[in-house]
Design goal:
The complex is a heterodimer.
Chain A lengths: L3 E12 L5 E12 L3 E6 L5 H8 L7 E6 L2 E2 L5 H11 E4 L11 H12 L4 H14 L15 H13 L5 E5 L7 H18 L3 E4 L3 H5 L3 E6 L2 E2 L1
Parallel strand pairs in A: 3-8, 3-9, 6-7, 7-8
Antiparallel strand pairs in A: 1-2, 1-4, 4-5, 9-10
Chain B lengths: L1 H15 L1 H37 L5 E4 L9 H4 L25 H10 L3 E16 L2 E10 L1 H8 L1 H4 E3 L3 H5 L3 E5 H7 L6 E6 L4 E10 L4 H4 L2 E5 H8 L8 E6 L5 H12 L2 E4 H4 L1 H39 L1 H9 L4 H34 L21 H27 L3 H7 L1
Parallel strand pairs in B: 3-8, 5-7
Antiparallel strand pairs in B: 1-9, 1-10, 2-3, 2-6, 2-9, 4-7, 5-8, 6-7
Classes of the chains: A alpha/beta, B alpha+beta.
Chain lengths: 224, 419
C-alpha cells in the first residue's frame, strides 16, 4: 500500500443554495503510483466537484483525503497551497495561461514559487518539459499568441514542472478540436507509459476514458 | 526569492495595464505635489506673518508695571496678622519705571543657559515738535548691536545705517510714517520734547519700517545714552530687559520664574501675542486638511483602479492559486502594485512639488507692509516632504489593502468552474 498516491475515504459534499443537494455521497477510492485513471459520468454527476476536492482547492467537504501519505483535513490554506504547488499538477478545460508572460515564464512560475532550485535550473527544466511536449520552439512567445492546442500543451508542461506526484485534469480536451484532442491524449499516454506519471483525468469522452488503465464511473454523486 | 518572484509578477501586471497605472500614479503625484507646495507656501507665509511680530518681540520682557503694591503696610503689622484687612481705593504710587538692580538681573541672565541673549532698553514717551503741533510718540533707547543680533533690527531700518544711532551722538531713527508726518528726511534735525518739557535737537539718521503702520507712526529709536541724557537719568536707568530664549516654548514657564526671582513684571511672547499663535495654528490646520484631502482622493483613485484590475485579473488570480500561490502571496502581489504606484507617484510628486514651490518663491511680491520681502516667502522644510512620503505610503497601503484582501479571498474553484 506504500505506493498509494491519493486515497479518498467517504467523501461527501452538499450544496446548500437554494436547497440542500447532496452532490457527493461517501465517495471512496485510491490511486496507485503510475496509474492512469479517468473519471467519467454525465454532466452534473459530481465528477468535477470531486476533482476540485481532491485538488485541495475546495475544502468544504466531509470525509478524509490523503495525498502522498499526508492528511489534508485541518490543513491551513497556506499549507494546502504548498501541497498544490509541490504535489499536484493541473490541466483545466480552459488553458488558464497568464497572457502577460512568455510561454517559458508561464511554465516556470510554479517552480519559482516552490523555490527549490535556482532560476537557471528551473529554466533548464522548463525547456525540458516543453521539449517533451514538442513545443520548445514556442518558449519565447507570449501566451496570447498561441493556438488553442498549443496553449493546452503549455498548460500540461506547466503542470509537470515541479515533478508532481499526480496530475489532475478537468476535461483537458473539452475545448479542443479532434486533432488537438488527439495530441493532448497522446501526450498523457506518453507521460503515463514512458515517464510513469500518475494521472487522474475527468472527462465525458468515452473513447478517451477507454484507453486509460482504470475508469471510475460516477452517477448522482456515487461511484458505480 | 519568493518576494522577488512576487515583485516580478507585480511588475508584469503593472506593465500590462500601463495606462491605468499611470492614471493612478498621476493621482498620487498630483496630491503630493499640491501637498508639498501648499504646505511650503503656507508655512512660508506663516513664517513671514509671525516674523512681523515674532522677530522683534522679545520672548520675555522684564519691566516694572505701574500697579498698586500687593503688600500693603497693614499686612506687615503683627497686631493684625490674624485678621482680614480690607483696604478701599488703593492707588498706584508714583513708583519708578526703571528696573531695580538691572545690572544684577543681566548678570544672572548671562549665566542662564536657556537664554540666547538679551538687550537693554530705555523707553520713554516724548513729543515730536512739528511747528505749532506736538506729535506724541515713543522714544526707545536701544542697544543697537544687541537688537540687530537678536531682533533683526537691521531688516527694519529701510534707509540709513542703524549703527549710526550708536556711533553719532544725538541721532535718531524715525518710523517712516512719523518722518513723513514731520516732513523730515535723513540728515534733517527733529525737535524732541520730554514730558517734563525739556527740548532736544536730534539728527535723523534712518527710517524704521516694521510693516505695522500704526506702530511705525509713533516709534523712534536712539541709543540708550541719548535717551538717558534726554530724560536726565543716570546710566543705570533701564526700563526694559528683552530676553530671547533658545526655545520659545519655554517662555511662559521661564517668565513665571523670573517674576518670582527678580521681583519684576515679566511678560512672555505667548501671552503678549496670543492672536498670532491662534492664526498660525488655524492656517496650518487648513493647509494640512487640504493636503490630506488631496491624498485621500488619490487613495480612492488607487482603490478603484486596483478593484478594476482584480476583476480583470480574476483568471490570473485563480490560476496562481491553483498552481500553488497562497492567498497571502496574492495579497502581497496586489499590495506591491499599490505601494509601488504610491511610491513612484510620491517620488514624482515630491520632485514636482519642489519645482513648483521654487517657482512660487521666485514670483515677485512687494508689499509695503513687509519691506524685507521681495518675492513670495516659501519654507522648503524637509519635514513636509517626510510627511508627504509617509502619508502617501499609508494612503496607498490602505487603498491597496482592501482590494488585495478581496483578491486573496478569490475562490479559484468558482472562477475555473465558471468557464
Amino acid at each position: 500500500m506504500q505506493n498509494i498516491i491519493l486515497q479518498a475515504t467517504n467523501i461527501s459534499k452538499n450544496f446548500y443554495d437554494p436547497v440542500t443537494v447532496e452532490v457527493l455521497h461517501n465517495v471512496s477510492f485510491g490511486i496507485q503510483k503510475g496509474e492512469f485513471v479517468s473519471i467519467i459520468g454525465k454532466s452534473g454527476c459530481g465528477k468535477s466537484t470531486l476533482l476540485y476536492i481532491l485538488s485541495t482547492m475546495d475544502t468544504d467537504y466531509s470525509g478524509e483525503l490523503m495525498i502522498d501519505g499526508e492528511r489534508m483535513a485541518q490543513k491551513k490554506e497556506k499549507d494546502l497551497a504548498r501541497i498544490r504547488n509541490e504535489k499536484i499538477g493541473f490541466v483545466f478545460q480552459f488553458h488558464y495561461l497568464l497572457n502577460e508572460f512568455s510561454v517559458l515564464k508561464n511554465v516556470m512560475l510554479p517552480a519559482l514559487r516552490l523555490n527549490k532550485y535556482s532560476e537557471e535550473v528551473i529554466r533548464e527544466k522548463a525547456f525540458a518539459k516543453l521539449d517533451i511536449l514538442g513545443i520548445k520552439d514556442l518558449s519565447e512567445k507570449k501566451a496570447s499568441q498561441l493556438s488553442g492546442g498549443q496553449k493546452q500543451r503549455v498548460a500540461i508542461a506547466r503542470s509537470l514542472i515541479n515533478d508532481p506526484a499526480i496530475i489532475m485534469g478537468d476535461e483537458p480536451t473539452g475545448n479542443l478540436d479532434k486533432k488537438n484532442s488527439q495530441i493532448v491524449f497522446d501526450t498523457f499516454k506518453h507521460l503515463s507509459e514512458d515517464l510513469k506519471q500518475t494521472l487522474l483525468i475527468v472527462t465525458h469522452d468515452p473513447s478517451f476514458a477507454e484507453s486509460t488503465h482504470r475508469i471510475i464511473e460516477m452517477e448522482d454523486g456515487r461511484i458505480i | 526569492m519568493t518576494l522577488k518572484l512576487l515583485i516580478q509578477i507585480a511588475i508584469t501586471m503593472l506593465r500590462a495595464r500601463l495606462r491605468q497605472t499611470i492614471v493612478a500614479a498621476v493621482g498620487v503625484t498630483f496630491g503630493i505635489t499640491m501637498f508639498v507646495t501648499l504646505l511650503s507656501f503656507m508655512s512660508g507665509l506663516n513664517g513671514m506673518l509671525d516674523g512681523l511680530v515674532g522677530n522683534r518681540t522679545p520672548h520675555i520682557r522684564l519691566y516694572n508695571e505701574i500697579e498698586p503694591s500687593k503688600n500693603q503696610p497693614i499686612n506687615l503689622s503683627e497686631a493684625y496678622k490674624k485678621d482680614y484687612n480690607f483696604i478701599n481705593s488703593i492707588k498706584s504710587n508714583n513708583s519708578r519705571q526703571e528696573i531695580y538692580s538691572a545690572n544684577k538681573i543681566m548678570q544672572t541672565l548671562k549665566e542662564d543657559n536657556r537664554v540666547l541673549g538679551y538687550s537693554r532698553k530705555v523707553a520713554s514717551q516724548v513729543f515730536f515738535n512739528d511747528g505749532a503741533i506736538d506729535i506724541a510718540g515713543f522714544m526707545n533707547g536701544i542697544d543697537v548691536e544687541a537688537e540687530m543680533l537678536l531682533y533683526s533690527f537691521r531688516d527694519y531700518v529701510t534707509s540709513g545705517n542703524p549703527l549710526d544711532v550708536k556711533n553719532r551722538s544725538n541721532s535718531i531713527i524715525l518710523g517712516k510714517p512719523l518722518a513723513e508726518k514731520l516732513m523730515v528726511s535723513i540728515g534733517d534735525i527733529v525737535q524732541v520734547a520730554t514730558i517734563q518739557g525739556e527740548r532736544f535737537q536730534l539728527k535723523v539718521v534712518g527710517y524704521y519700517q516694521s510693516g505695522l503702520a500704526d506702530f511705525d507712526k509713533t516709534q523712534s529709536f536712539a541709543s540708550i545714552n541719548t535717551v538717558q541724557k534726554i530724560l536726565g537719568k543716570p546710566s543705570s536707568h533701564i526700563t526694559d530687559i528683552q530676553v530671547k530664549l533658545k526655545d520659545m516654548n519655554l517662555a511662559p514657564k521661564t517668565a513665571k520664574e523670573y517674576r518670582q526671582v527678580f521681583g519684576v513684571s515679566a511678560q512672555d511672547i505667548q501671552a503678549a501675542n496670543a492672536q498670532f499663535e491662534t492664526g498660525t495654528y488655524i492656517r496650518n490646520l487648513i493647509s494640512y486638511a487640504v493636503g490630506i484631502t488631496l491624498l485621500i482622493v488619490a487613495g480612492f483613485g488607487i482603490y478603484n483602479i486596483l478593484n478594476m484590475m482584480i476583476y480583470e485579473k480574476m483568471d490570473t488570480i485563480a490560476i496562481l492559486k491553483a498552481t500553488g500561490f497562497s492567498g497571502t502571496d496574492v495579497k502581497r502581489i496586489f499590495m506591491l502594485i499599490s505601494l509601488s504606484i504610491g511610491f513612484f507617484g510620491c517620488l514624482l510628486g515630491l520632485l514636482l512639488g519642489n519645482t513648483l514651490s521654487r517657482l512660487i518663491s521666485h514670483i515677485p511680491f512687494n508689499s509695503p507692509a513687509v519691506p524685507t520681502i521681495k518675492t513670495f516667502p516659501v519654507d522648503h522644510n524637509p519635514v513636509y516632504y517626510a510627511i508627504a512620503i509617509i502619508f502617501s505610503l499609508v494612503t496607498t497601503y490602505f487603498a491597496g489593502w482592501f482590494p488585495a484582501r478581496k483578491a486573496s479571498k478569490v475562490d479559484p474553484v468558482v472562477i475555473i468552474r465558471g468557464k
